Amino acid sequence: NAYKAQVIPGNSQLDIDMDIYAPCALGATLNSVSIPSLKCQVIAGGANNQLQDEVEHAQMLKERGILYAPDFLINSGGIINVYLEYTGKYNRELAYQKAQSIYDTCLELIDRSQHLDITTHQAALQMARDRIERVGKVKLTF
Asked: Does the predicted TM-score (pTM) go above 0.90?
């Protein structure tokens, strides 16, 4: 194991120190009971709806100094892949190239969150709304 990573079974993730908590199957694992017990610096997983309450629990994570990457950002590579398949433009290299921008989007999200003193969840929603608005304007002008 080159990365010294461990898979931790069940709910015992609250009992150990870790760098990254990556909930990948079960939603709402981040809640008023689990957040105070977490011993991690980052949450970045693929499970949908990781926060039981998006407003309250995102704020709790921010106050604890735990960096939270929203699930819809973490999962955006899958959406990119599906979109390319749906439009008939799919090829592996193009999907990979577009997915590489997720890293830069994560950095932008963190910067926005810190600059505006808002949660990363709020910043992600703002960024999504901004993108939808830009796309809508582009489509309306053609």
From this structure: no
